[in-house]
Amino acid sequence: xxxxxxxxxxxxxxxxxxxxxxxxxxxxxxxxxxxxxxxxxxxxxxxxxxxxxxxxxxxxxxxxxxxxxxxxxxxxxxxxxxxxxxxxxxxxxxxxxxxxxxxxxxxxxxxxxxxxxxxxxxxxxxxxxxxxxxxxxxxxxxxxxxxxxxxxxxxxxxxxxxxxxxxxxxxxxxxxxxxxxxxxxxxxxxxxxxxxxxxxxxxxxxxxxxxxxxxxxxxxxxxxxxxxxxxxxxxxxxxxxxxxxxxxxxxxxxxxxxxxxxxxxxxxxxxxxxxxxxxxxxxxxxxxxxxxxxxxxxxxxxxxxxxxxxxxxxxxxxxxxxxxxxxxxxxxxxxxxxxxxxxxxxxxxxxxxxxxxxxxxxxxxxxxxxxxxxxxxxxxxxxxxxxxxxxxxxxxxxxxxxxxxxxxxxxxxxxxxxxxxxxxxxxxxxxxxxxxxxxxxxxxxxxxxxxxxxxxxxxxxxxxxxxxxxxxxxxxxxxxxxxxxxxxxxxxxxxxxxxxxxxxxxxxxxxxxxxxxxxxxxxxxxxxxxxxxxxxxxxxxxxxxxxxxxxxxxxxxxxxxxxxxxxxxxxxxxxxxxxxxxxxxxxxxxxxxxxxxxxxxxxxxxxxxxxxxxxxxxxxxxxxxxxxxxxxxxxxxxxxxxxxxxxxxxxxxxxxxxxxxxxxxxxxxxxxxxxxxxxxxxxxxxxxxxxxxxxxxxxxxxxxxxxxxxxxxxxxxxxxxxxxxxxxxxxxxxxxxxxxxxxxxxxxxxxxxxxxxxxxxxxxxxxxxxxxxxxxxxxxxxxxxxxxxxxxxxxxxxxxxxxxxxxxxxxxxxxxxxxxxxxxxxxxxxxxxxxxxxxxxxxxxxxx
Length: 848
Hints:
The protein is built from twelve helices and 50 strands. By secondary structure, the protein is an alpha/beta fold. Among the domains are: 526-615 and 623-769, Leucine-rich repeat, LRR (right-handed beta-alpha superhelix) (Alpha-Beta Horseshoe); 808-848. The strands form eight sheets. It has a 26-stranded mixed β-sheet, with no helix packed on it. β16, α5 and β17 form a beta-alpha-beta unit.
């Protein structure tokens, strides 16, 4: 959503620029000025598209110039502008087929269908027939297939935006080299997301852009080449292939999220109009000092994030005095931050996070940054040392200083930043009580992270004053008090590893919460059943390592009864999105009812991604989400990023006082990656259905009172890499086969004295039979083989005889003559036997 919002803002900026470029003589036509043929064309267009929310409900009556999105010339009455840009969200999208009736709008010079959903249809070729068109925006509208070369006929076009947005790589720029250069008036071009792979190389790319361009955006296009090839045709001579050689008016160049490598051309230093350059998420792999030498000094916005840059922020930085936006995050920059950065008086956005910068930063680094609004230095071993009475020259709305050393005292200068929306001071070495003024400062904060410090103090009874809050993370501190009432806007809360006490509130106050971690506190009492009714969007719930007692919530243990007997109560106990449930290390009692296992998200097969791949996946994501969830899996306490939560599913009820049997319904949770029921008082057999959990990587049933044989179905768990069945009353031969062969650690079965066979040392006497489910499996297999063989034999015999008779007339005639002869013989034989039998009976009667 963050990327979409960013694209939306950029699109609005472009729209304003385009409005300045296009002729500002458009206005609402006078009453009755609508041309009848154009009105009919618009109505025909409306009839062919879907409009689920009635956005075109005003399209009625005679005067089409007053219809929503339609603008006519105040001189001629002709329709000159059709603006159907969707300012809402998906349900408000227009869709369907775009009819060619629009061709009747011969005077149209502005067409915007962006942010709608046309279902992967191709861009209509007739769009290239609007000869007066100056502005065309089809971005974020789910068009796919080849971009029609007819667009090259739009010789008056000034603005063209085909950004694929959510539907990246769906558009293919076929014959781009042939038609794009014909748009010689074009000033703004956005082909972001178009699939350039195998469609054009960098040499072709160098000659296709019209020299009139001011704004060029080609992000996420699959471009793979060396940037230097834009300037050099060979290794020795300067070439005329520089794509920017004639683009002396270029102001914005966006090539982010491609696979561009190497050094930027030296000739780019002569681009005196260039104000914005974005090469983020490429593989530049050069020293930033060398790169800076090729940049024009008048540049205002520079985004080189995640570009694989090395080097340091030395004196070159103070020469970029025009910069108002600088993003060098997620690179490999080292050394201290040069104090010359303080000369960037125009800077509003500074992001140096996730590098290897070190040393001290002080108030001198910010002395002249009066316009600074965003400061991000997180994930660097930096130390911030400022005077306790320092008054910053800036007013920040975004502060990201996580993992920078700010302590031991709470930074007093934060008190003056009253408009903060994003605040991250996590892992900052602060060992102090939270100041009273802090809660007033964060009243408008939407993201708050103070985790992994040594902050102390009592939490407010209510955080409802944080009316914009979306995420709050205070874990790993020394806060005390009860769980506060929460803002209704909150979706993520982490208060784990503190000294929170008292019972859970009956109602937390937020209906949108999907992540709740209250683990490792001193919370007591029972789990309120209201949690089932008010937190319907929960995906992650961790209440482990508290002092909770009583049985599991009634709404979790009786949902089947209610669903069967009270159809109007089926919202009850519907935590359909719950993927991670951790109630370990409490004093919970009762049974594991089958209805507890009805969490829908856990019944969906998870992607085939192992835990070891999660970190790699997180690094490849563009989103920033520092929240980390903790799970005990494979016998270890592991941490995972919450932006990968959709890839995992876990159920942990360990270290409680649960009794009864493990229900057979456990086999329905096929999405589980981790199942831990250890250290309870569970009895009975391990259900055979556990073999259905094909996504399971970790299974711990240790320290219970389970009995009977180990089901051989465990060998079907091909993803299982951690197993613990120790300290139960299991007996019989340990099953073998497939995945179980790799789990050869005897400690897996320790404390089960009646188990025998590898990998434990006790040998089986030979009288032990395979477990009952294995015998059933073998019997079923043998019977299946018998019936299969019998069926195959019957079919073979049948077709040998019948097929021969069917396809050979001579054999068929002989066969039927033979059968007639045999039937006659049989008939005569039977009649003679019958006559002799009757005669014999009569003779015996006469003798008597």
